[in-house]
Amino acid sequence: MESKTAAGADRRYAVALILLLVVSYALRLVLSLRGGQGFWPDESRYYSVMEAVNSGNFRTVLNTVASTADHLGFKALSVIPAYLQISFNGGYAVATTFFSLFSTASIGWIWLIARRTGAGQGEALGAALTFACSNAMFYWSRHLIPYDVALFWGLACLYFAVGPKISLGNSLLAGLFGLLTFVTYNGYWTWVALVLSGHVVFVLPNWRAALLRGGGGLLSLVGGFCLLVVLAATLKANLLDSYTQFAGTITQGDFSEGHRVIWEYLWSAESVGLFVWVLAVFGLIAAQFSGHNPARRGWLWLGGVVGIVAVLVVGSNLLETFVVYGRLVRQVIPFFALLVGYMILGFRPDMGRFRVVRIGLVLLLLFSAAWNFSKPLAQEFPNEFHRRATFEIERLRANALVDGKTPIAPDRFRFVNVGFIWPTPTTMPEYGKIRELCVGQHPLVYSPFFYEGLKRDQRERFLGADIRMRLISIEE
């Protein structure tokens, strides 16, 4: 009887996880179809790959992928959606649909990691739900950038790194996926260093096991990297020089703001969801001091948050080596999600007493996701505004012909703020008397975007400026 009950519970959790993945992917498809591809300059890497694929020359594709170190793994993977897009004559949503598979699959990795570290199915599902409710893990999925793919590999690295067994195979795989993380998006070296270091440290003082883990991880990480350098050299590319030069470019913004950007970015992206995350941190600490002795994995996830934050603050505020961007801050979110899952559904000193609180926190996460997701879903980007405004021009000119009026001359139409604005807002030229024909909110009023290289004074200028996208006509 008990086995049947357990089997039924397993099926319910499996169905719930599948439903969560399906809904998450569907939302990403809707977001992709709403447009936004081509807005960020960093998306140029995908376009260069697509041009190479379109040339039909395999050597050109190889040179495009391996010529520089910036996100080499992302460029290599981009060959697949670029080929599909060209073969089916599709739009850029073909590519974001492909990359969204990695973004969605990361939710599954969170479930697997929780289970691998001893979590029950309810706790694992709670962690996956928390991760799926993160807006910072959602709004980037419409753009052709490497962050989600790199984190997918990073979570695979974490999965093999936290395995309880002392296994050379796990260490080799952790190092391999760490390499894929780094070469896909170089900025996530922090994740790789932290996870692989923890993979070794957590078996101390068993030095034999530590050496086995460290040796296995370094063998696949460093050995794989050396192999990439050698292969690139056959194409006349010097990856070592390229990596060195690229590492010195993370300087847009203000080094002294690192400690503030972390929390300001998370609040701008997650709003009240961040409250639940921070509450889980205080709950874990309070539980320890009250004598409830939380499980080791709870401290492991908190250690991940603290470790990532520490590296970002030291690298920015103290060493002034790299500026903290929002996309770098996203590395703390998997650890927060795993910690929230543990505190809500894994830590049970008195389940009956705190049942209402737990249900309330889950509802708060769902409300936060609904509120936060609605903003990027409602965004309009310059390419989409331009199409809408062009249709308006055609409509106005057609109506003028029907009414027997003189259509507005083409040279009297002007597009204002219909493009990427960086690093400060622009001022509309003095046109004299004008008429607004079409208006849209510029995507750079979306506050999470402010933390991708802007200084505080630049963020304040965007907040106080009128950067609406507009189609105007100059009146006589």
Describe the SSE topology.
Blueprint (H helix, E strand, L loop, with lengths): L1 H32 L10 H12 L2 H9 L5 H16 L5 H24 L4 H12 L14 H15 L6 H17 L4 H13 L5 H27 L5 H9 L10 H13 L1 H18 L6 H23 L7 H4 L3 H14 L4 H28 L3 H21 L10 E4 L17 E7 L15 H9 L4 E6 L2
Antiparallel strand pairs: 1-3, 2-3
Helix pairs in contact: 1-5, 1-6, 2-3, 2-4, 3-4, 4-5, 4-8, 5-6, 5-7, 6-16, 7-8, 7-9, 8-9, 8-10, 9-10, 9-14, 13-16, 14-16
| Approximate helicity band | 55-70%
Intertermini distance: 85 Å
Shape, please? globular
DSSP summary, beta strand count: 3
Sheet bearing the most strands, described? 3 strands, antiparallel
Total helical segments: 19
Q: What fraction of the residues are assigned to beta strands by DSSP?
A: under 5%
Q: Notable features of this structure?
A:
single chain; mainly alpha; 19 helices; 4% strand
